[in-house]
Amino acid sequence: MFAVTSMFWKFDLHSSSHIDTLLEREDVTLKELMDEEDVLQECKAQNRKLIEFLLKAECLEDLVSFIIEEPPQDMDEKIRYKYPNIACELLTSDVSQMNDRLGEDESLLMKLYSFLLNDSPLNPLLASFFSKVLSILISRKPEQIVDFLKKKHDFVDLIIKHIGTSAIMDLLLRLLTCIEPPQPRQDVLNWLNEEKIIQRLVGIVHPSQEEDRHSNASQSLCEIIRLSRDQMLQVQNSPEPDPLLATLEKQEIIEQLLSNIFHKEKNESAIVSAIQILLTLLETRRPTFEGHIEICPPGMSHSAYSVNKSVLEAIRGRLSAFHELLLEPPKKSVMKTTWGMLDPPVGNTRLNVIRLISSLLQTNTNSVNGDLVELNSIGVILDMFFKYTWNNFLHTQVEICIALILASPFESPENGTVTDQDSTGDNLLLRHLFLKCQLVERILEAWEMNEKKQAEGGRRHGYMGHLTRIANCIVHSTDKGPNSTLVQQLIKELPDDVRERWETFCTSSLGETNKRNTVDLGNIALFEACCKERIQQFDDGGSDEEDIWEEKRIAFTPESQRRSSSGSTDSEESTDSEEEDGAKHDLFDSSNANPEDKMEVDLSEPPNWSANFDVPMETTHGASLDSVGSDVWNTEPMPTKETGWASFSEFTSPLSTKDSLRSNSPVEMETSTEPVDSLTTSAVSLTAPPEAPGSVAMEATSDGEDDAENTDKVTETVMNGSMKETLSLTVDAKTETAVFKRVLKSYREEGKLSTSQDVSCKYVVEERTESADASPAASQPVGLSPEQRTDQPTLLGETSVNGPV
């Protein structure tokens, strides 16, 4: 191994990058290096020669040029942006030396900054390269880059100019997120606020602007709101408020935004973008500051959230305009669908207006609720619910609105939240829902219409699932809701026929539907129960049965570890569990032996022998071991000769030895000091003809002598090439001893023993190696040091073996 390794390095057989070879040339060019496949890998791996080359002034300048200049138009489109892409990856590989050089070299920064001076629209791919490079510089060199940008008085103007390009919008947000130290970040916020970035972004949301600019400006403002609020949650003791958020929440800024979209021309893109900003401002948040009121969605703590009053006041002034959008949305062409013609379709404008109403209902503000009642906005969206049968986006928002009205407690301007017992006559919005909008009557009519249509073979209406949930919400509010008293009163005030139909509907149609839905939803539980029932059929005895796959730790007491080589022991020192006894007895009991219990020998490979001595037996003192089963050792006639099979189910032996080491097996393993020829055994011999290397044969014989009554000996002979291996096992049931011997005979000049061993159990082994010329070295026991090698025929010791021995 060492010779191969040394040759490997001596002859430089390790793979080396071709870049190193190129860098040895004095005329190597940047493009040649960029053509190498592993240039990025070598750069990130801090290849010293490559980094030094890239840090050259001309190379850095070329890399910056690649990402800001349009590639030639006559190039193949597949490779046109190859070098700009590689240049961007090299500059953003986060190599500290490169970041330092770019951040400190103002000429390179100016060259990079010049990309913003191009006319709109910018190349989106090159813009992404530019934004990526400048973003990592902001992250790694915040002070230098921010100081550089502040000196450029047209920076914010250029950002606003190119805001329609998504990569430039991302760059603006990077300025807010990549600067981690609090004070530098606060300086950036103050600088951007002084540059009136909020006002400029709001001014873009105007019908006169392009749709891409609407979308990106709106998204930028929404992200600024979320980032600012997240930062306020993390740093609640900040000495200064977020100036950008404070500016955006001012009533005059919201009024400017709404004034832009409610222009003479109804532009859907501008309206939707503005509503997205309002929805973000109305998102609930935890801190409560002066000038904010608390809001509480259903199921949440009432004091956990707050929204700015100025935002609500600005929206209230334009509620009538939003209501008008529900009635007269921006013009849209007729939409042909698989279920008919939509003239006009719902449209994104009206869907977002309904989302805005839902957010306003969540604030549960009396003034807003009163305006909605006066405008009948809830009635209009309920009409849309039943008109647009298949628009589930619309159905979801209408369901949310109704659920909020039913679940929101009445808010008193003087006394705050009013309990259910005191609010029976004050919740105008809830009364409006039942009396003016006739919610119960419309549910019953729609349900009857759907049943009639289905009875005629028609299709079930698409809103039926949402209608079922709305009906269940009314029933729940009647029983347990915060307005249960008022809802019960409103149900009683219904006309008699309507009230009777409603009660019948709740107990019959609605109840049956709920039961059917519950059964359908319970299919999963039924399936799991069925699976468990089937799986239990494979259990043999319940939880009290032993898990045969469970790993168990066998512990021995100090007394049992110090027992003499005679194998005597007391029954109370046994540590095996009764479950293990049963399993072992079933596994090794000879009375249950059958042909399937025999060991099959694979003749296609050299034999892999594994010895297992975990066999129950009786001690010489008559005390039973944990693994009771002395009948295993009874001598019975061995089976007739079978090629390729071996059975070791029954052994007896009177062998006794002294001064041996104790093994971890329940059977004490010892090596005899007597010559092998002096042992009288009942043997099983395995022979194979020399011309069949690797084959194994087995023959069972018994001499029937008196002194072998309690002794069994197993001998296995394996031929493998020029090596003859004889394994012998002699077991004495009376003394609880087992002697395992191994002899290798080589027909070459000198025997060599090669073993592959795997620790599993411990026993005493005697191994011999004998050669044809009977050389002294070959007859020595394996494992002895040169000082221990003598003419003694045995080796006493404790060996760990599992596998071929």
From TrEMBL:
Biased composition (Polar residues): 649-685, 791-805
InterPro entries on file: ARM-type_fold (IPR016024), SAPS (IPR007587)
Region: Disordered, residue numbers: 554-710, 767-805
Pfam families in alphabetical order: SAPS
GO MF terms held by the record: protein phosphatase binding; protein phosphatase regulator activity
Entry GO CC: cytosol; nucleus
Biased composition (Acidic residues): 570-581
Signal sequence segment: none
Family listed: Belongs to the SAPS family.
Protein name per Swiss-Prot or TrEMBL: Serine/threonine-protein phosphatase 6 regulatory subunit 3 isoform X7
Organism expressing this protein natively: Phascolarctos cinereus
